[in-house]
Amino acid sequence: MSGAESTAGVRVGRRTEAAATATVERKRPPVRPGRIVLHAFLALTALAFLFPLLYAVFTSLRSYADTAARGYLSFPRELTLENFAKAWRTGDIPLHFLNTVVVVLPSLVLILLLSSFVAFGLSRYRIPGRRILLVVFTAGNLLPQQILLTPLYQLYQLIDDSDFMYDRGWYVYDSYWGVIAIHVAFQIGFCTFVLANYMQALPEELTESALVDGASAWRQYWGITLPLCRPPLAALATLEFTWLYNDFLWALVLMSSGDKRPITSALNNLRGQFFVDNNMLAAGSLIIALPTIVVYFLLQRHFIRGLTLGATKG
Q1: First to last CA, the chain
Q2: CB-CB contact of 309 with 231 (8 Å)
């Protein structure tokens, strides 16, 4: 075979391969009715979830006079940000937001720190009955919080009436640390359950080799195990921040001073005695919801990674 014929053969082969590739690319899998139904269901579900948020945004941008004259489901005459400024002033949102920070941040740090302590002990040391302890920690979260309202309220009153607390002026009722203690007690079980299962999946050779090198228990926990637990810690931090930030029940039961309550109570300040401005109320709701959205987007990558841990393991 001459050189010219060989070159021509190579060109023909390349053209054939290109044509075959183009044919494969053009051939898409047939659209099945089941896939259409699935996409339609997902689109409707997404709209159902987004509708309240979009409706709140739409309402907050309209004046009360506009919605009173035209109705809420109508085209607006004008859009304005005045409701956000009114909600910021009327609801005293900076004060209540500061109260929320005072309660949420210490609670979050204590929950993750203490639950990681317990999870490390249960997963790395052969403690008798450790599985039962883990079940007890998890079962505590299954109790409805509503059935504990009256006992906890009476317990706080009894603690404050004791001579030790009364003489020193240390009160748990109507105090920040009283609410923090409740949050830590209720949330530590769930975090311990998640972290213990993750730590049990880590190779034991890591801590065993560190133990041979003379590493203390604190060094094994802080220097070796905890850095490997960043994905579940980030996922738990996002979840716990959302739950603690949105809490209204415990602050309402265990706090009597309105100026100490968290930001969720600020919405109640936006309601008048005889008149409710729903436009301003919608604006206040969006302001209050903004921090949770910001935290989710900041920790989104770690949050999704933490939720999908172990999903690909056989």
Answers
A1: 55
A2: yes
